[in-house]
Structure formats: C-alpha cells, structure tokens
Amino acid sequence: MSLAKVKHIVLVLSGKGGVGKSSVTTQLALSLSLAGHSVGVLDVDLTGPSIPRMFGIEDAKVTQAPGGWLPITVHEADPSAGVGSLRVMSLGFLLPKRGDAVVWRGPKKTAMVRQFLSDVFWDETDYLLIDTPPGTSDEHISLAENLLQKARPGQLAGAVVVTTPQAVATADVRKELNFCTKTNIRVLGVVENMCGFVCPNCSECTNIFMSGGGEVMANDFGVRFLGRVPIDPQFLVLIETGKRPTYPAGTTVDGKDISTPAGASTSEEEEVKDGSRLVHKYKDCSLAPIFSKITADVISAVQQ
Ligand SMILES: Nc1ncnc2c1ncn2[C@@H]1O[C@H](COP(=O)(O)OP(=O)(O)OP(=O)(O)O)[C@@H](O)[C@H]1O
Ligand code: SF4
Hints:
By secondary structure, the protein is α/β, with parallel strands linked by helices. The protein is built from 11 helices and 13 strands. The strands form 3 sheets. Strands 1, 2, 5, 6, 7, 8, 9, 10 and 11 form a 9-stranded mixed sheet that branches. A two-stranded antiparallel sheet has the order 3-4. Strands 12-13 form a two-stranded antiparallel sheet. A hairpin with a 2-residue loop joins strand 3 and strand 4. The longest helix is centred in the last third of the chain and has 17 residues. The chain is globular, with a radius of gyration of 19 Å. The two termini are 26 Å apart. The model has no long low-confidence stretch (mean pLDDT 85). The structure holds adenosine-5'-triphosphate and iron/sulfur cluster. The site of iron/sulfur cluster has 5 residues, from loops. GO terms for molecular function: 4 iron, 4 sulfur cluster binding; ATP binding; ATP hydrolysis activity; ATP-dependent FeS chaperone activity; iron-sulfur cluster binding; metal ion binding. It is found in: Cytoplasm. Belongs to the Mrp/NBP35 ATP-binding proteins family. NUBP2/CFD1 subfamily.
C-alpha cells in the first residue's frame, strides 16, 4: 500500500459483529471530513464488507494506476464549505458478487488482505480509517502485524474500539482491548453504540439497555471513553435510501434545535442516493453533533 502520503492511520475494531463498527467508521469519516480533513476509509472486513453500501457507492468501478488500485472518491475537498475530501477502498469492490462475505479459509484470506494492503494507492490523506473484521482471531493478529510492518513509526495512531451496552457485559470487548495490548496498538478510546433509541415521533432518546458499562470498562482499562451513540432510525434511512434526516419541531441535541425547518427541500434530486451529497445530508442527522465531539476527542488522542 502506498502510505507515504497518509499522515495518521486509525483502526476501528470491535470484539464481535453487528455492534455498529462500520457505522462508526462511516460517521467518523464524515465528521473528520466536515472538520476539513482529507479522509480515506479502507474496508478490510471480509465477513461482509458494508462500507460501499454505507457510502452509496456499491456500483463504483475501481481502476488501476501505475501506483496501485485507486480508491473511489465519495466527494472532493470543498475548501469554501470547510469540507475535506473523502475516498474509500473496500475489498467489497473486488468481490464477484457485491456484499458477499468472503468464504476462503485462513491462509488465503490473510494473503488476500496482505496483497490488498499493498496494492492501494492513497494520495494526500490526513486520516486513514481502517474498518477491520470483528473479533480477535489469528487473522486479526496477522492484519495488525502487516499494518505495523507497512506503517512508518508513529503513523499507526491507534484504535477506536466499538461496543454496545450488551457487548460490554460479555468478554468480547475486553478481549479486544487485551488484543490491542498484545499487538502494541494504542487504544484511542471506546465508543458505546446503540445505547438508546431516538423516538421517531417525538425524538426523545430512551435508554433501552443499561447504559454506562462502556465508560466503566474504559476506566478499568485506563483508556479514554469517547461517548455514547443512540440508535437513530433517521441515520438508517439516510444510509439505506440516501434521504436527508428529518425531525419533528422542537427536537434538540445538547440544547441545539435540529428540527427540520418547514418547507425544507425534499425534491427528487435531493432525495436521490448520491455519495457526494452524503456529507451535507449527514450534517442534519441527530448523530452528527455527537460524532463531532467524538471526532474532536479522537483527533486530540492522535495528537498526544
Ligand atoms: N447508532 C445507530 N443508529 C441507527 N442505526 C445504526 C446505528 N449503529 C448501527 N446501525 C445500523 O445497524 C446495522 C449494523 O451496523 P454495522 O453494519 O455498522 O455493524 P458492524 O459492527 O460493522 O457489523 P459487521 O460486524 O457485520 O460488520 C446497520 O444497518 C447500521 O446502519
Ligand atoms: S413520547 Fe415519544 S417515545 Fe414516548 S411514547 Fe410518545 S412517541 Fe414514543
């Protein structure tokens, strides 16, 4: 992989599947871009690459240049809007049937990932986020070893560990934190996803599971707790259909009114799933202010 022009690499890890690792990667990428940084996302989750779907670029065609595979541009930098560029590369682009999980056995998988890591050309990138397969298997260890070998000293900034309130109660997330210690990867912090539910009718956030476990666990391990993220069905609508999130009158996040103004544009063109508009639509999501804070904390952890 040509990493020469990448400033910082951040891994996104989870001890088990389905906790929202790819959603967190996507939202970190959008928030970093909204903060003006140039961002790359590399999806090596062989268990079912979901990143192309999340960015609305499932049908994108990857091309090859002399320097390697060229990542897909979700949007270019727009300095007048303070937005940085966003590019994505996924193993999913190379699978014959998009969205399939890879069924190869260990050594073939590892060889594929190794080659994939070497063959992608990244242009000027402030943050490269890597969405990894869930778990702490041998496959993970070899992925981490490969990365550590390829990155220059200090380039691999660390890992963001994603969990859910239920997963905290299991051993998986602790295993993930132990995995980081074993592989010498610094933990930048823990995100607790799906810690509550944003009601689509009144936008009240209700804690459906016992929340707070992520923070206790982060304290136990002496790592930073980055924050809690509720389930917002409007985020799912944005990802699945490309529709701009809308909220009833009076909806606030941290005291800020995020309700959809009367007469806001919902034209056909606006509704169309189009990766280049995603970042601007995401700005209207109730999760965006939460991720803006998480992202600021990740940046400060990277720079420490
Ligand atoms: N906070 C959230 N609000 C609304 N939907 C969410 C949230 N977090 C995750 N989801 C949705 O839950 C589903 C699973 O999330 P995601 O694919 O990010 O999990 P994952 O941990 O990456 O899974 P896998 O292990 O299969 O890769 C997705 O449809 C995603 O959009
Ligand atoms: S206030 Fe909201 S969450 Fe509670 S019952 Fe009414 S609509 Fe549902």
